[in-house]
Write a structure and sequence with these properties.
Distance between the termini: 111 Å
Largest sheet: 4 strands, antiparallel
Number of helices: 2
Strand content: 25-35%
Number of strands: 8
Structural class: alpha+beta
Number of domains: 2
Radius of gyration: 33 Å
Strand order of the largest sheet: 3-4-5-6
Order of helices and strands: HHEEEEEEEE
Amino acid sequence: MNESLKKESETSEISALVGELPTWSTKKTVFQICTLLLLLGLIVYFTIFSDNEKAERVIDQPITVSEDGPIIEHLGYRYQFGEPGDVVVVRECNGTKLPWLLRVSTGELFRFDSWATVNTKEASLVRLIDRASGITVMKDPVCDQLPINSC
């Protein structure tokens, strides 16, 4: 008789082990799945809508065009730089494209820190280059190089 009780208790233990999950585990699993779905939804939302807002801000910028000097088109806008005879290039560095201007008459190299949103934008003088005659862009994976031509 001892053996039959022993077999019966073993059967009860085995069925308890393979039966339903305890309710706290089910609730915990449901909570984790809901949290994961919420996070995925937020990632998708911010990925889609943050890009659209950036594009709308860029489109709202007014077109800046003066009367003389080189013109560059960037993101559908025309930008006028410097004076006649100046050379302007767009350098990409870490995913950001910004204009650089070489004033050939004086050898001054200027960097613009952003694109103009009103009629004018000031540039920073980077350096003076004797006998500078032009500037080109050499593509680079991180930051484009700007070799200066001299005569």
